[in-house]
């Protein structure tokens, strides 16, 4: 349950009001924030407290993460000249605190609990770089793809290398699963996704395949993209609540595990409704070839921790027939 | 092409900088803004210059439409007590300017050019009322559905009656096609859409069926909902660019015409890319049982009017084999 910490009082207490990028660069704090949801909820995996823009920030690219808004880029990328601003990311030198946080977290995790490392997929990172921040229409990034595919692919290639380097460093530091967030891929038509997003996404998974850890590819609104995403090289594909998991399995084919997909907003409803929806997710997901129960997107900050505790209990009690991935 | 006017200099000149709800309540101005895209582009239909929140505003519900943001509600709806604030909408008394604008526009439209009247679907309108404005997670409205279905359905019923009254008045004033915008329906899971959004949507189409005009139901991100939306009572279902139209037809079945679905962002690309994508839309749509060529969402304000002119020419030249709807 990504961002599960946000609704916890111990998170707000430890995290304080500082900038998120500052919190991430403090390994002791980042490790503590990584561990809190595991202690509170007894989930089967922790996700490293970090952000998809950390590698960009670490190479000195001028961006901030604005609370309630997201990543904001001072000078957006628009041409080949801007590519020079994206120098290669060397995790051990540029962001040693990420690996350190992972090491500290792994040391404290209960046996059998996975640590998930993650990175932003090239399209989603590029959308922030080209749009200058969060977007509704993604007009600039789509226009760049179609008007200058050479620059687009060069940009995507650099971001793929950055994501692969970041994931590899997290695995070396102890992450046992990796997840690539292509959060906004669902704004692309299937043809555009295949042409402009898939190639660089494949590069990421190819680069990390020798590491031998299970990999998850996640996006929201990706119903029409699932058959294509199945070719990206991840063993697991995460989907949001829009696509029932039985339908997602049909589109993904028999070789992929699924992750998801309870609507985070349902967790604000009375428990009977949450339980009914969670059981529907388990029923539709089935067990083969693997299901990672999760919300379909990040935990909403106003979620009652008691509901999430009960949800974890329900899934542990009723979903145990599932085959763990990895 | 909805909101096609926004990118026109004559629109900006006539429209000025006043509030949109003021422009809508000036029938001469609203008629002029309705006609401009027809004059400029030679499209086959005009869409009335109006807004989905006009009925709410007209009954005295306290809301504004903020430029660049959307409808903002001063006191959101959260309980059954709030339903009393939604009194029935009587178009002829509460918003006579809408019908007057339609009459003036129809008078000036070239023969054979349709006037599209429209309204907001109950779920989409309710999302503004409950969230208080545009939303990313739609958490409050989903929580209301699940926690208090009785209040939810009572709210949706009132909004259905409001939409039906609004559409009927527009038809009486000369609209020859109606469109119901359920713009945010795509944030719902298929099960939630069927349980919470479909019933009131059906009520709207049932109420206006005796008027005998073709009806379009539109939303974005609705790929997983199409089979359910096909049961709402509209003859035409509009889809955004995420679902190829051949796939949309498979989900809708043989009884529905389709509307769509060029990505508006593609119109910012060089003409060759626009033409290739438009031809792909025409090819996938086929001709039976009807295709209304359109963008998959509103025109982006930064769109070059020259590109839209060329697009209309291309569709007229190459899409004429299609069977017009209505």
Blueprint (SSEs and pairs):
Two copies of one chain form a homodimer.
Chain A: H1 9-15, H2 20-24, H3 27-41, E1 45-47, H4 54-58, E2 63-66, E3 70-73, H5 91-94, H6 96-108, E4 114-120, H7 122-131, H8 139-147, H9 149-172, E5 177-181, H10 190-208, E6 215-218, H11 226-229, E7 236-238, H12 245-252, E8 257-262, H13 271-285, E9 291-295, H14 305-318
Parallel strand pairs in A: 1-4, 4-5, 5-6, 6-7, 7-8, 8-9
Antiparallel strand pairs in A: 2-3
User: How many strands appear in the DSSP assignment of chain A?
Assistant: 9
Count of helices of chain A?
14
Could you describe the largest sheet of chain A, including whether it forms a barrel? Answer: 7 strands, parallel
* Count of structural domains of chain A: 1
Quaternary status: homodimer
DSSP strand content of chain A: 5-15%
* Helix content, binned percent of chain A: 40-55%
Unreliable sequence segments of chain A? 322-326
Q: Which whole number gives the mean pLDDT of chain A? A: 95
CATH class of chain A, please? Alpha Beta
Based on Cα principal axes, name the global outline of chain A.
globular
Instruction: Based on the coordinates given, report the CATH architecture of chain A.
Output: Alpha-Beta Barrel
Helix and strand composition category of chain A: alpha/beta
Radius of gyration of chain A over all CA atoms, rounded: 19 Å
- Terminal CA distance of chain A reads 18 Å
Largest interface: A-B, 36 and 36 residues
């Amino acid at each position: 349950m990504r961002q599960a910490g946000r609704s916890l009082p111990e998170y707000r207490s430890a995290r304080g009001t500082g900038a998120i990028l500052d919190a991430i660069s403090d390994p002791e704090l980042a490790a503590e924030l990584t561990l809190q949801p595991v202690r509170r909820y007894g989930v089967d995996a922790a996700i490293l407290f970090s952000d998809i823009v950390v590698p960009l920030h670490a190479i000195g690219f001028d961006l901030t993460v604005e609370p309630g808004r997201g990543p904001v880029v001072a000078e957006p990328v628009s041409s080949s000249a801007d590519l020079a601003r994206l120098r290669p990311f060397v995790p051990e030198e540029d962001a040693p605190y990420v690996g350190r946080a992972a090491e500290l977290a792994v040391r404290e995790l209960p046996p059998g609990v996975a640590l998930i490392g993650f990175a932003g997929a090239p399209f989603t990172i590029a959308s922030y770089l080209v749009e200058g921040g969060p977007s509704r229409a993604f007009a600039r990034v789509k226009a760049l793809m179609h008007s200058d595919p050479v620059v687009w692919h060069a940009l995507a290639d650099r971001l793929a290398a950055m994501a692969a380097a970041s994931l590899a460093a997290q695995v070396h530091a102890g992450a046992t699963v990796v997840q690539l967030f292509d959060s906004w891929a669902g704004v692309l038509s299937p043809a555009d996704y295949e042409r402009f997003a898939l190639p660089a996404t494949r590069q990421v998974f190819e680069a990390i395949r020798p590491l031998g850890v299970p990999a998850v590819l996640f996006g929201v609104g990706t119903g029409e993209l699932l058959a294509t995403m199945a070719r990206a090289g991840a063993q697991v594909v995460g989907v949001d609540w829009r696509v029932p998991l039985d339908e997602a399995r049909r589109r993904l084919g028999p070789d992929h595990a699924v992750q998801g997909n309870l609507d985070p907003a349902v967790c604000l409803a009375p428990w009977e409704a949450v339980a009914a929806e969670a059981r529907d997710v388990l029923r539709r997901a089935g067990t083969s070839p693997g299901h990672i129960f999760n919300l379909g997107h990040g935990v909403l900050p106003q979620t009652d921790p008691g509901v999430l505790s009960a949800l974890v209990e329900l899934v542990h009690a009723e979903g145990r027939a599932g085959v763990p991935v990895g």
